[in-house]
Fold this protein.
Amino acid sequence: MEVHNFTLEELIHYDKPVPAQLCSEQLKELEQEVYHLNTVNDELSQDNHKLNKKLASCKDELETLKNCIIEMQTKMSLG
């Protein structure tokens, strides 16, 4: 039985069950890549959460400024 040494790129796009003969080094590399991608995903999720909080804060400030402008315009028109 022939043992095929898959590259990580081949493994990512392999659409059948990976053969049991897959060497442990390749499996270790794939596990490291998955760990890395999960770490990056966690960091991006945290950044996204922070940015959403900042966006909400900016929306609140914008609404306050809008109300202030409306109030000033009302005062100016009443004169």
Notes: The chain has a mean pLDDT of 85. The first helix runs from residue 8 to 13. Helices lie at 8-13, 24-78. DSSP finds two helices and no strands in the chain.
